[in-house]
Each structure stands twice: as C-alpha cells, then as structure tokens.
Amino acid sequence: MKNILVPVGSSKNALSHLQYAVDFAEAFGAKLFVVQVYNVYTKAGTMIKVDHIIERESLAFLNELVSKIDTKGVEVIVKTLKGKLIDTLELACKTANVDLVLIEPRTNSISDKVFLGETSGKIIKQMHVPALIVPEGYVFSKPSHVLMALKSAIIKKDHVLDPLKHIKKQFNATIDLLLVKTPYYNDGDFKVNKELKSVVSNIKETENATTFQGVLRHYESHDPDMLCVVRRKRGFFTKKWEKNTILKKDFHSTIPVLVLSGLK
After folding, report:
1. What is the CATH number of the domain that holds 229?
2. Residue 257 falls within a domain, yes or no?
C-alpha cells in the first residue's frame, strides 16, 4: 500500500481524521494525498476571479490543518481540485495510483443522527477505489482482528483482496470470514477459493435476512477491531444507500470499516 488519499471537508473531526490518516500511512510507509474538491456553478465568464479565491482559500485551509498535526515524516501532498466530486476523485486516484481512500463518516457539520453524510455516502457508494471509513475521533491502533462479512465468496476480479492482504501482513491481523446466507443466496456462493482461504483464519456460516443483520448477530462473539465488507449492487449497504446519507439508526460502527470494491 503506497498511496493513500484523504478527501477533507469542513467537519470538526478533520484534524482527528488527518492524524489517523498520517498514523495509518506511516505504518505502511505510504504517501498521503490530502485533497479538497470544489465546484462553482455559474454563467460563463462571470465568476473567473471567484474560482481563484475559492482555490486559494481551500489550499490555505488544508495547509493550516496539516500544520496542526504530527506528520511523523510521512510525505503529505496537499491539493485542491475543481470538478464534480466523484469524477474528480476517481481521476485523482487513477493519476496518483491510489490504493485506498480514507474517509470520515461526516465531512461536513451535520446532524448527530447521521452516520454517513451526503458526501461520504456518495464516495462509498459510487467510487470504485477501496475505502476505509474511520469513526469520528478514532485514534489509530494496529488492527489485530478483522471480521469480513460476505453473502457470496465468489471472486472474479483481480487484486480485489489486496487492501485486506496488506492489512493482514502489515499488522499480523487475524481475519475471520462470516458467510451470510440471505434470500438472494445462489449455489456456489459459499465456495471459498484458495486466495480467500489463504487470507482468512476462520470461516463461519450464518443465515440472516441481510449481511448487515448477520454482522449484528455475530459481532460481539468475534469482537473485531475492524470490519470488512464489499461494495456490490446487492451488497452490504444496498437499501441503506439508495440515498447517499445513512442514519445511525440504520447503520453505525464504532470501529473502522474497510469497504472493498466489488468481487465480481
């Protein structure tokens, strides 16, 4: 894991989140890209100077944040990017060969009832790059026990497990696999291939209405310090992410959540 990207909003948690990102990047010897995306909707030719003002203020804001944290020798690159959020972040990730995006649940100061705000939810739902959701105020510690929850273990994409492999290797973490049989179960869904078997230490099967309910049922018995789920069309957060915002009553995690790109 060599390049990590951190989109920054205006939340009160920004400093804490950046410090976690630095600590995480330090563990891997990775480079950290701290970015803020802005967009100006206006009639042609009427707001040119405003663009420059926003870019300057955004860059000053990011540099001030970085100056307040302990960078611990990690190479931190600060960038302001203009454009549509997802398209711009996807392009930035491709250009910088980003391995992981670290996001905070709420990038803007919004209701305490919300777990993932509009921006964070959109990043998780629409981007194809693996992401790590870091709870607000969470202090970095080496993850030692990861609970991975899947409703199908079928893997068709190359390198999709790489972030999990990196975490396992770097932190010597134990990874438990929870296979959740839902109403959408198909024959072969629980067939674990050699690659996945080499990553996990224990495999448990359960039957629940959703993958999320399976996690809730077995969470305490596993007592993980990181949760791993998969982004897919009918996956962990399907119904919860019909809208980008996710309320805490629907899903809430007090530990980091690693979201892998779709396995198929």
Report:
1. 3.40.50
2. no
Which residues of the chain are modeled with pLDDT < 50?
A: 107-109, 234-235, 237, 239-242
Taking each helix axis from N to C terminus, what angle separates 162-171 and 14-28, rounded to the nearest 10 degrees?
A: 80
| Alpha helix segments (H runs only) across the chain | 14-28, 48-67, 85-95, 118-126, 162-171, 194-199, 211-222
State the pTM of this model: 0.86
Find where tokens 């609970």 sit.
147
Q: Given this model, what pLDDT does residue 244 score? A: 54
Domain span at residue 62 reads 3-133
- Residue 264: the pLDDT is 64
Pairing of strands 202-207, 257-260: unpaired
pLDDT at 115: 54
Question: How far is residue 23 from each of residues 35, 93, 136, 246, 256, measured CA to CA in Å?
Answer: 17, 20, 15, 27, 14
Residue 252 lies in a domain: no
Are residues 95 and 15 part of one domain?
Answer: yes
CATH number of the structural domain spanning residue 95: 3.40.50.620
Residues 104 and 173 placed together within one structural domain of the fold: no
Give, as one character, the DSSP assignment of residue 112: T
Is residue 174 helix, strand or coil? strand
Q: Which residues of 185-213 are buried (b: 16+ CB within 10 A; e: fewer)?
A: eeeebbebeeebeebbeeeeebebebbbe
**Would you state the pLDDT for residue 241?**
44
- The tally of domains found in the chain comes to 2
